[in-house]
Write a structure and sequence with these properties.
Elements (H helix, E strand, L loop, with lengths): L7 E6 L2 H10 L12 E4 L4 E6 H8 L11 E6 L5 H11 L3 E8 L5 E6 L5 E6 L18
């Protein structure tokens, strides 16, 4: 079952630094993120900025299909095996699996699905960012 929460909101950015400066001007503070993502922890979730072309490549779709204001929602799970289970559930419910569960270069495990109207979700297990007991997510783990 998919818990009723969003762990990570990822914005596909054409100019990551300019976009990060916008959020900093709004009063937000970056958290450490050494892997090409700019991250801002929110209350119980994280906003991440990621290069638009890299986001399209990661999902496995043409960049044009993401449209203006490209965004993905992520639902982080507690166990690696939950990624495939949740992708199968999404497909059974009428969604489309865009990327099957697989390992990621940074050491996690993830996949993507689109809901019936095309909104893209990532399902991810991140061994470096464990969830809090209530499902809360922070970029470097809830601790």
């Amino acid at each position: 079952m998919m818990e009723q929460r969003v762990s990570l909101i990822t914005l596909g950015a054409r100019d990551m630094e300019a976009l990060a400066e916008f959020y900093e001007a709004m009063g937000w503070t970056r958290v450490d993120s050494p892997d090409g993502v700019i991250a801002f922890d929110l209350i119980g979730q994280t906003l991440g900025l990621y290069p638009l072309a890299a986001l399209a490549e990661d999902i496995g779709v043409p960049i044009e299909s993401l449209g203006p204001g490209a965004i993905t929602l992520s639902h982080n799970v507690r166990d690696k095996s939950d990624v495939a289970v949740l992708l199968a559930r999404a497909e059974a419910a009428g969604g489309e699996v865009l990327k099957s569960a697989s390992g990621v270069f940074w050491g996690g495990h993830h996949g993507y699905f689109a809901d019936p109207e095309g909104h893209v979700w990532e399902v991810a297990w991140n061994p470096f960012s464990p969830l809090g007991p209530d499902g809360a997510f922070q970029w470097n783990g809830v601790g």
